[in-house]
Write a structure and sequence with these properties.
This protein is α+β, with helices and mostly antiparallel strands and about 160 residues long. The protein is built from 5 helices and 4 strands, in the order H-H-H-H-H-E-E-E-E. The longest helix is centred in the middle third of the chain and has 22 residues, at about 85-105.
């Protein structure tokens, strides 16, 4: 259960975006993921109930690339939808992702995240490879989480 909570928290975090701090923003996909995880950790710790806290969900919404998730979820069927149908699908997907995060969010501060490497992914995206180790139980198997991050006008987590 703790592992599942971390994965969802990481995705959220991963799915969490740093607010536009500087004009340039993070200088790399790894910096983006590091900042996102830091933001999620801080928001969860500051919240009385992170499962209901709109600030936590806002981080996910600013960090996740919902249009990319929609396109990949629909696959070859995406082209057959009208813009209105795609917008509706995107909205439903966003609600499902939020519900999943709400259900499974936990405090990620119980883990040490190691940033292993960053390399190219298809489509011009970057893959950030991490490993999370449980602070309280160092014998627990570390969890590897890979973040597919792309940048257009800002970084977003795609997977």
């Amino acid at each position: 259960m703790q592992r599942r909570q971390f994965v969802f928290t990481a995705l959220i975090t991963a799915c969490a975006l740093r607010p536009p701090v500087a004009l340039a923003g993070p200088s790399s996909a790894t910096d983006f993921v590091r900042g996102m995880l830091s933001d999620v950790t801080a928001a969860v710790k500051a919240s009385k109930d992170p499962k209901k806290d709109p600030k936590v969900l806002e981080i996910f919404d600013r960090t996740l690339d919902y249009p990319y998730l929609t396109k990949n979820s629909l696959g070859k069927h995406a082209a057959a939808l009208t813009p209105e149908q795609r917008a509706e699908f995107d909205d439903v997907l966003r609600q499902l992702v939020r519900a999943s995060y709400r259900k499974n969010i936990g405090d990620p501060s119980g883990f040490v995240v190691e940033y292993l490497k960053e390399d190219d992914a298809d489509g011009g995206a970057r893959m950030v490879h991490t490993r999370a180790t449980n602070k309280k139980n160092p014998r627990a198997e570390p969890l590897e989480v890979d973040y597919r991050v792309a940048k257009a006008d800002r970084y977003l987590v795609q997977d």
